[in-house]
Design brief:
The chain has 274 residues and is mostly helical. The protein has 2 domains: 3-90, DNA polymerase, domain 1 (Orthogonal Bundle); 105-266, Intergrase catalytic core (hpI Integrase, Chain A), CATH 1.10.443. It has helices at residues 3-13, 18-34, 45-59, 63-81, 105-114, 118-130, 134-138, 172-182, 199-212, 221-234, 239-246, 251-254, 262-267, and strands at residues 145-146, 151-154, 163-166. The longest helix has 19 residues, at 63-81.
């Protein structure tokens, strides 16, 4: 059995999510390919440092991805060989503070309007209208949709947390048309053979919708989630409710959406004008 298979097995036993497992294995595959000629058991701190230096210089990786690479390597060697690497000196000293990117409501409505495919239109509407992550959208099952109470059950989301989100009234007629045309069997959005849609396919759906709407920036499903939170903040929704809707463990994570929306900028007066 290959190391990657054994590592996957250990991660599954530890109840890591499938998306997390894929991310770890993809990151480690790139790492081990780059150090071809060095046995996996012989990798040391210097090997990791050289690889990381190359990634920073050649690919200009972000600080968060740098931390992810280090975390992946540390976890692999701890799980596979009970070996602890001393890599603390390779973690970035400065923390990046990037504000979440988001779209205006008008831009999103244009994306939805110009998307003719009912399935794709429904996906975009729920990503924005419910603030869902891609993994949450593709894992939605028909039984999770409660049109009577106007809510959706998001089961075993990130962090293994269940939660409810609102089902927008404006989306209900669209979903009914979608059901009549596609007859999904288990998952709300299915690809071939009644299997759930892939996250990559959803990303392509969103990208194409943004191109049709002539939005001059890269739009991802997560930007629709950021837009959901930002627009709720602008409408005066209590941040604690937004925290629950997004499934954040800490309100501190949600707080980034308060820094700074267009509305708050417009409301603040310069000392010169007071």
């Amino acid at each position: 059995m290959k190391y990657s298979q054994i590592f996957r097995q250990k991660l599954e036993i530890a109840r890591y999510s499938e998306s997390t497992i894929k991310t770890y294995i993809s990151t480690l595959t790139s790492f081990f390919k780059s150090i071809d000629g060095i046995a996996i058991e012989e990798v040391n701190e210097t090997t990791v440092e050289k690889y990381l230096y190359g990634e920073i210089k050649e690919k200009n990786i972000s600080q968060s991805f740098q931390k992810h690479i280090l975390g992946s390597i540390k976890l692999f060697y701890e799980m596979m060989f009970s070996r602890k690497f001393s890599l603390s000196h390779l973690y970035p000293k400065r923390v990046e503070h990037q504000l979440p990117k988001y779209l205006s409501k008008e831009e999103i409505l244009k994306m939805i309007e110009l998307t003719e495919n009912l399935k794709h239109k429904s996906m975009i509407s729920l990503l924005y209208g419910c603030g869902l992550r891609v993994s949450e959208l593709i894992n939605l099952k028909i039984i999770d949709i409660d049109s009577k109470s106007g809510r959706i059950s998001v089961i075993q989301a990130k962090g293994k947390k269940d939660r409810y989100v609102m089902l927008p009234k404006s989306v209900l007629p669209l979903l009914r048309k979608y059901f009549e045309k596609y007859f999904p069997q288990t998952y709300l959005f299915e690809g071939g053979k009644n299997e759930k849609y892939s996250s990559r396919s959803v990303q392509q759906v969103v990208k194409q919708a943004a191109l049709k709407a002539k939005i001059q920036k890269l739009v991802t499903p997560h930007i629709l989630r950021h837009s959901f939170a930002t627009h709720l903040i602008e409408n005066g929704t209590d941040i604690r409710y937004i925290q629950e809707l997004l499934g954040h463990n800490s309100v501190m994570t949600t707080q980034i959406y308060t820094h700074i929306t267009d509305l708050t900028i417009r409301k603040i007066q310069s000392p010169l004008d007071i």
